[in-house]
C-alpha cells in the first residue's frame, strides 16, 4: 500500500519568500538581519532628544536672564524717575512763589531803613519764616556775585556793559535777579550783567 503524503509539495517553512510574512517570524528565522528597534538606535535617539531638550533649556534660561535683567533695569529707571518726580513735584508752586519772595526781599531792604524797630523785627521774622519754608521744600539759592566768571549754564546774561575795570572783562558785573534751583535743577536762572 502506498500512502500519499499530504504535506508533499507544500513547504510550510518557505524561507525563500519571507518578505511577505510576519517580520517577527523572519527575525527569529534570520537572526543576522538588523532591526530598526535595536537598543543602540533607541539610545542614539534618546541622546539626541536629551540634547535637544538641553539646548531648549539653555535658550529658555538665556531668554529668562535677559528678561530679568531688562526688568531690573526698568525697576531702577522708574525708581529714579519717581525720586526725581518727588524732588521736583513742588516746582510749579515754588516758581509761582519766587516773585513774591523777590518782592519780600525788596520790601525788607526798604523797611530795614525804617526807625521802627518793632516793624523791622516783625517783617524780618516773617521774611525768614517764608525763606525757611521754601528751603524746607527744596528751594536753594544759586550763589552768584559780582566778579564771578560768567557761565551760561548757570546764569542768563541780559546785557553787556563796558567793564568798570580790566579784571571784570567777561565776568559778572551785577546780579539783577536772583536764581533758584530745586534739587539739582535750576528752576530760575539768575539774570546778570556782564562786563565787556
Record keyword descriptors for this entry.
196 residues, alpha+beta, three-stranded mixed beta sheet, 6 strands, elongated, Nucleotide Exchange Factor Grpe, Chain A, domain 2, 4 helices, single chain, 2 domains
In short:
Keywords: Chaperone, Coiled coil, Cytoplasm, Stress response. 49% of the residues lie in helices and 15% in strands.
Describe this structure in words.
This protein has 196 residues and is an alpha+beta fold. It folds into 2 domains: 35-87; 91-195, Head domain of nucleotide exchange factor GrpE (Nucleotide Exchange Factor Grpe, Chain A, domain 2), CATH 2.30.22. The protein is built from 4 helices and 6 strands; from the N terminus they run ααααββββββ. The strands form 2 sheets. The chain has a 3-stranded antiparallel β-sheet. Strand 4 (179-182) and strand 5 (185-188) form a beta hairpin. It starts with 22 loop residues before the first helix and ends with a strand. The model is unreliable at 12-20 (pLDDT under 50).
Amino acid at each position: 500500500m502506498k500512502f500519499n503524503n499530504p504535506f508533499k509539495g507544500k513547504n510550510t517553512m518557505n524561507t525563500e519568500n519571507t518578505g511577505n510574512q510576519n517580520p517577527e517570524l523572519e527575525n527569529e528565522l534570520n537572526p543576522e538581519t538588523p532591526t530598526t528597534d535595536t537598543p543602540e538606535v533607541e539610545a542614539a535617539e534618546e541622546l539626541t532628544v536629551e540634547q535637544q531638550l538641553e539646548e531648549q533649556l539653555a535658550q529658555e534660561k538665556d531668554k529668562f536672564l535677559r528678561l530679568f535683567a531688562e526688568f531690573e533695569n526698568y525697576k531702577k529707571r522708574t525708581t529714579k524717575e519717581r525720586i526725581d518726580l518727588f524732588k521736583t513735584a513742588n516746582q510749579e508752586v515754588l516758581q509761582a512763589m519766587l516773585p513774591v519772595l523777590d518782592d519780600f526781599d525788596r520790601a525788607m531792604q526798604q523797611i530795614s531803613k525804617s526807625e521802627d524797630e518793632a516793624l523791622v523785627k516783625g517783617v524780618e521774622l516773617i521774611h525768614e519764616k517764608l525763606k525757611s519754608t521754601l528751603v524746607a521744600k527744596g528751594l536753594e539759592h544759586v550763589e552768584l556775585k559780582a566778579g564771578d566768571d560768567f557761565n551760561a549754564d548757570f546764569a542768563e546774561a541780559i546785557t553787556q556793559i563796558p567793564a568798570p575795570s580790566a579784571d571784570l572783562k567777561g565776568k559778572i558785573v551785577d546780579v539783577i535777579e536772583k536764581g533758584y534751583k530745586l534739587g539739582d535743577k535750576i528752576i530760575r536762572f539768575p539774570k546778570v550783567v556782564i562786563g565787556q
